[in-house]
């Protein structure tokens, strides 16, 4: 495996340097209802393989604010066993502009609950709804994630 890999989560940009990077290609959908949960395992496994081979992984989407941030948070939760709050703080300190959508945060909270049996309740972004309804809605997402 090459030293560097690339998770390309865009619909606009092709994999330009296949002789230089190992690519994981995920096609982005421009919808407010877009789901990332089904990609979490695939991306986490890809990152682990590259890291075990001594490589590094660039994860990017169109703007590096929501989709790629959510995927990196999922990898940190799954591979580094960090809570969502811990992972968010680390990632935010490296990239101040991250702001995963509320849908993506619900999926990440469901992932956290599935792995650790707990749910981070701290509001992470200004746009995030911190209502009990949103936390309960993650039950449906949690059930779907366990099927994957």
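Sequence proposed for the structure above (148 residues):
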């Amino acid at each position: 495996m090459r030293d560097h890999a690339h998770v390309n989560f865009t619909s606009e940009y092709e994999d330009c340097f296949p002789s230089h990077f190992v690519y994981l290609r995920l096609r982005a959908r421009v919808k407010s209802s877009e789901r990332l949960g089904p990609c979490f395992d695939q991306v986490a496994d890809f990152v682990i393989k590259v890291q075990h081979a001594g490589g590094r992984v660039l994860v990017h989407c169109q703007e590096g604010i929501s989709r790629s941030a959510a995927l990196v948070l999922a990898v940190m939760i799954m591979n580094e066993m960090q809570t969502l709050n811990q992972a968010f703080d680390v990632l935010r300190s490296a990239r101040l502009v991250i702001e995963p959508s509320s849908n993506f945060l619900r999926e990440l909270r469901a992932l956290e609950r599935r792995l650790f049996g707990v749910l981070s309740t701290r509001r992470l972004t200004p746009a995030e709804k911190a209502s009990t309804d949103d936390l309960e809605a993650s039950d449906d997402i949690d059930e779907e994630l366990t099927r994957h």
